[in-house]
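#struct-queue
[09:14] JT: dropping the first one here, sequence first, then the structure tokens:
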Amino acid sequence: MIQINRVSVGRVSGDNAAVVPSTPLLSRFANDPEMRDIVALFVSEVPERLREFRDAWGASDLRRVRTLAHQIKGAAGGYGYPEVSTAASELELAAGAADATTGSARTAFENFTAVLARVVIAG
């Protein structure tokens, strides 16, 4: 059985946006019984993390967006979600090099949140 977070997933909007499939993103450790509990904890925190990112973005607080992206970049890889790490790295760089009105920062933000929203755990 797969438990899916109840968050929005799907197409990313924006001028230069890529389309992110809305398929569930399963941890590379999904079949590892020793990792199940800590991966489940990471997944349970995804809705709150998305809220934090959206709040920071809405407030045009790119410093906070960059900090949050940096934090999740390392954590996601450790929990078996390298796709999240890659998207977080791109967001961290874009947020550090631009303001919230630029297309590249917006695209990186929308791509990251769409990827993070796909995170699920087998259970």
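[09:21] JT: and here's the second one, same format:
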Amino acid sequence: MTDLRTRMIFAALMSFLMTVIMSGWITWLNIGFHPEYAARWGHAFLAAWPAAFFAVMTIAPMVQRLTVRLAAALR
């Protein structure tokens, strides 16, 4: 089992990277490369990152346990 500091670093990095990618992608799908693209992307990122961090912190341990069970069942 990992300690809390490791989980928090993982959650921060994973949520940051996923939020950058997804907010950029969804912003592009919604408005294309509009003159306000960067500002809207930044706003979407800042709104989404705390939610993504919380989700990774709370859901990742359950997903890890499920992954171990599924991998064992597929052996």
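[09:30] RK: nice, looked through the second one.
[09:31] RK: The CA atoms of residues 62 and 72 lie 16 Å apart.
[09:31] JT: good to know. Residues 4-73 form one domain.
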